[in-house]
Amino acid sequence: MTGAKRKRSTVWRKIQAVRLEDIKAWCLRRLPILKWVPAYNWKENLLPDAVSGMMLAIQQVTQGLAFAVLSSVHPVFGLYGSFFPVIIYAIFGMGRHVATGTFALTSLISANAVERLVPSVRTNFTASNNSGILGLSEFEMQRIGVAAAVSFLGGIIQVVMFTLQLGSATFLLTEPVISAMTTGAATHVVTSQVKYLLGMKVPYMSGPLAFFHIYAYVFENIRTVQLEALLLSLLSIVVLVLVKELNEKFQRNIKVVLPIDLLLIIATSIACYCADMEYVYRIEVVGNIPKGLPSPKAPPMNVLPEVVTEAFGVALVGYVASLALAQGSAKKFKYSVDDNQEFLAHGLSNVIPSFFFCIPSAAAMGRTALLYSTGAKTQVACLISCVLILVVIYTIGPLLYWLPMCVLASIIVVGLKGMLMQFRDLKKYWNVDKIDWSIWVSTYVFTICFAANVGLLYGVVCTIVIVIFRFPRAKTLNLKNMKEVEYKYKAEDNCESLKQVKIVSVNSPLVFLNARKFHADLLKIIQKDGMSSQVGDTVNKCEQNTLLCSFSNGSCHGELVQSCHSERRVLILDCSGLNFFDYTGVSVLLQIYMDCKNRYIDVVLAHCKASLIKAMQYGGNLDSENPVFFESISSAIDAIQIHRVRLTSRSRWSLEGFLDAHRNLLKSGKVLFTQ
After folding, report:
1. Domain STAS, which positions (predicted)?
2. How confident is the model at residue 496 (pLDDT cuts 50, 70, 90)?
């Protein structure tokens, strides 16, 4: 009980120590909306945000309907997925131009779980078995329950990653890996829409090589293609591409782009209704869309263990794609984005909306590019789009009954144009780095053959392996010229003595990956400079000169001894670039110190961190009379000069004493012979 009371008192003291300023700082850090809303410029920013919000709402509605179908759930749930996650991200997110909502890649991943757990053959696609919720069938509610469970668990994983501060690990997600993964996933999305574009009945296929099985099935049943749906799809794609190209070309001259997606939906819906295409030409339409927002309901927790794989895919792929867009907008408009805070924002944008029957969400490239082009300033544009989407949910939704599915598929395919055009990056990677080019191609192939999450995992592992192989081969050392050192000497003899000093700069961390290469590079520098052989010759010459002086008649000059000490070589290691090290790196430094000592080369280290000094002193016995570690190169050279002056004066005194003793011995006749 005493220990428990002590713990409670400690916790209570910590709670009491929390100040109001700390709580305010935490709220500002975790709720970015509290920062930008008070500083919002209503006069300058409201109009462009309103225009962008209206254009964004149109794209959110069309993509919401399309990506819901891609996720194998009823289209109305895509409208909910374009409303709730946007509000949550506006509160917790830091990307001012990031338009979150339904996303093609996460929808495709969640469709795997939906089709696996609630297959289409289980019941008819009708509303005869009414569940009492939104007027939809029990089959549809089971399907959205699985998709909501994927969203819930994926969001929980992202929140856990935020708690563990794993946002700093995003450096492993290189640009080639992200580009290849998103391009491969976009190719999967296009493949999933082939059945709607052609008006065919294609069974759902998933697993390894499903991409090729789908096209094999299409070519085997090519005679079942519905010509009316194919022609309508081709016409929709041509119109969409042509008008969007014109919008991009003249966007500087016109402030509001033509909402071709909305116009196409209205036109084809009216045409389908007037021509009765649903029954005359058997063209598949969206069907009934319920009015209003649903009451909150928890996702089915019993299916969570069965959707773990898809949840991890949604968490990683959605976060990677969204973070890339957030960092790109931050770089373009010169503000900062916290990687960990984005984990929290997207995690909550998946967890909370899952209680309102929403599919997994993330930021989309097309919507973010739309905010760029329409001049959006803040997340107010996204909030305005939510108001308009709410109007669609309560009033306009039922009018979308006659929207052809092939038109929705055409909108999806054209909306992925930006991702598919990333194939052009291959030329850039080939010209810059062939290894990055190979990573892009292999990651794309893995994504195509398996899935987006598998391709992402392969790309990260491949990047780590290549770094491990390339890191030991990287240049670790750089031989500096004495002219590069900002140090001046007045005496000319000092400048001459500095020729015996070599400065080597350490350019990289010293760890087990490159420790052996570091040792080899340093030995090459020593041997190339001739330090070892010259030092050995100098030592032998000094010993011979000292022996000759001892048997001479005393006419030995002090300059000879001075040159012996001044010619001893010194190696200065500039450790300013040594950011971190491990035990192997410290061991190599100690081994270099001892090897150079055996070669009659003094080794000193400059710009050393306290941790490096402590590690070297703990790891080995640096038995030296002189200091080894210095704050700078200049202080190291100062110490070398002072030490040489002391050695020279000490040698002069010892030589004079030796000559006096030798003369006394000669006078006393105790020496048998002299030379």
Report:
1. 491-640
2. low
Q: How far apart are CA 400 and CA 287, in angstroms?
A: 7
Q: Which residues pair with 574 in a beta bridge?
A: 505, 606
Computed on alpha carbons and rounded to an integer, the radius of gyration of the chain in Å comes to 37
639 three-state secondary structure: helix
**Could you tell me if 536 and 599 are in contact, meaning their C-beta atoms sit under 8 angstroms apart?**
yes
Q: Determine the residue type at 209.
A: L
Q: What are phi and psi of 604, to 5 degrees?
A: -130, 155
Contact indicator for 321, 362 with CB cutoff of 8 Å: yes
Residues 6+ apart with CB under 8 A from 349: 85, 88, 89, 92, 93, 100, 155, 361
Q: How far apart (Å, rounded) are the C-alpha atoms in residues 469 and 15?
A: 49
Distance CA 196, CA 108 (A): 15
Q: Tell which residue, 401, 388, 206, has the closest CA to residue 309.
A: 206
For residue 68, name the pLDDT band (cuts at 50, 70, 90). Answer: very high
Q: 109-134 in b/e burial notation, b at 16+ Cβ within 10 A?
A: bbbbbbbbbbeeeeeeeebeeeeebb
Pairwise CA distance, residues 284 & 424, whole Å: 35
Q: What distances in angstroms separate CA 591 from CA 523, 528, 573, 585, 598, one per listed residue? A: 12, 20, 14, 10, 11
What tokens were used for 522?
A: 């340093």
**Two tokens, residue 229:** 């749906």
Per residue, what are the HEC states of 381-423?
Answer: HHHHHHHHHHHHHHHHHHHHHHCEHHHHHHHHHHHCHHHHHHH
Residue-wise pLDDT for 244-294, tens only, equals: 888 888 777 766 678 888 899 989 999 999 998 888 888 989 888 888 888
Residue 661's alpha-carbon distances to 435, 556, 665, 666, in angstroms, are 74, 15, 6, 9
Count CA within 13 A, CB hemisphere, residue 537.
5
Cβ of 505: how many Cβ atoms within 10 Å? 20
The amino acid sitting at 47 is L
- Among residues 158, 140, 87, which one has the least CA distance to residue 317? 158
* CA–CA separation, 170 and 168 (whole Å): 5
Residue 651 CA to residue 566 CA, distance in Å, equals: 12
pLDDT tens-digit series, residues 17-53? 666 776 777 777 888 888 888 888 888 889 989 989 9
Tokens 């509605």 belong to: 61
